[in-house]
Specification:
Length: 260
C-alpha cells in the first residue's frame, strides 16, 4: 500500500501516532487561537530576527499542527499533530488515501515512551490491525529511523537566508536543510537531493510573533514542485497522553511499522 507521492514519502516515515488512549482536555479557558495579548510586545523589525524568535516560540506552549502538501494532488492525505513541547506528550495522526480507503498511522508520545498503531482498510498486513500499539522506543530516536519529526519542524526556520518581508507579518527566503537530518529524516533528504542547500520557504507570524503558517518548497521524484505546508493553531490547548492498556501493547515491532 505504497503511494508515489510526496506526502507518503514524508508521512509514512514520519512521526505519526496516537489514538483512543489520548485525551484532549480544555483547561479552563478555551485555547488561544491567536488573539493578541493586550500587552504583547512589538515584533522585531528585522525579518530574520522575527523568524528566529517565531521558531523558538514553537517550544513554549502546546499547539495543534496541520500538515499538508499545499495542494490537492495528495488526494486527501493529511497529518494532524496535537503536541505539548515541554511535556513531550501528544498525538500525531496521518491519513493516507489508498484505492480501497485510507491507511491511518497514529503516533502516541507519552513522555517517556512512543507507540505506533496502524489501521488499514483490509487485513493483508496483519500487524496493521488498528488495535495493537507497537512500542517503538523513546522520544529522540534518530530521525533516520523514525522519519520526519513534525514536532521539530519549526526549528528548521532558525537560520533562514535572503529573508524579505512580503506582507503584514509575512516573509519569504531560503533554508539550508543539509544539517537538518535529525528533524527531516532520510526520506525528505532523498526527495530534496542537491536542492537541500537553498530550499525556498514562506512563513507568517501572528501579532504575538508565533509561527502560524510555514511552507517549505520541496521537489518530488518527478522534479515537480510540491510543498510541505504547516499551519499552527490552538495555542495553549491542554494535552494529556497516557500509555495504552497493557494488553494492547506489542513489543519488538516489525519493520513495516513506522519508527520500528
Amino acid at each position: 500500500m505504497q503511494k508515489p507521492k510526496l506526502i507518503a514519502a514524508v508521512a509514512v516515515l514520519a512521526v505519526v501516532v496516537g489514538g483512543g488512549v489520548w485525551a484532549l482536555v480544555a483547561a479552563g479557558d478555551e485555547p488561544d487561537a491567536g488573539r493578541p495579548a493586550a500587552d504583547a510586545p512589538p515584533l522585531p523589525s528585522d525579518p530574520v530576527a522575527v523568524l528566529k524568535a517565531a521558531a523558538a516560540k514553537a517550544d513554549e506552549q502546546p499547539y495543534k499542527l496541520t500538515v499538508g502538501t499545499g495542494g490537492t494532488a495528495d488526494g486527501g492525505d493529511s497529518t494532524v499533530v496535537l503536541w505539548d513541547p515541554k511535556a513531550k506528550r501528544g498525538l500525531e495522526t496521518t491519513s493516507l488515501k489508498v484505492p480501497n480507503g485510507a491507511v491511518k498511522i497514529e503516533r502516541l508520545t507519552t513522555g517517556p515512551d512512543v507507540y505506533v498503531r496502524v489501521t488499514a482498510p483490509d487485513r493483508r498486513v496483519p500487524v496493521w490491525d488498528g488495535k495493537t500499539w507497537w512500542h517503538v522506543g523513546a522520544p529522540g530516536v534518530p530521525a533516520a529511523k523514525q522519519g520526519l519529526d513534525n514536532t521539530r519542524l519549526a526549528g528548521t526556520l532558525a537560520a533562514p537566508a535572503g529573508v524579505r518581508q512580503t506582507g503584514v507579518r509575512e516573509y519569504a527566503g531560503t533554508l539550508d536543510l543539509r544539517g537538518s537530518g535529525e528533524v527531516l529524516g532520510s526520506g525528505v533528504g532523498t526527495v530534496l537531493g542537491d536542492r537541500a542547500g537553498a530550499v525556498p520557504f514562506t512563513a507568517s507570524v501572528d501579532e504575538q510573533g508565533r509561527l502560524v503558517r510555514y511552507r517549505i518548497e520541496l521537489a518530488s521524484e518527478q522534479s515537480q514542485t510540491a510543498q510541505l505546508d504547516l499551519t499552527y493553531s490552538d495555542f495553549g490547548l491542554s494535552v494529556t497522553a497516557d500509555p495504552p492498556a497493557a494488553d494492547l501493547i506489542g513489543e519488538d515491532p516489525p519493520a513495516n511499522i513506522p519508527g520500528a
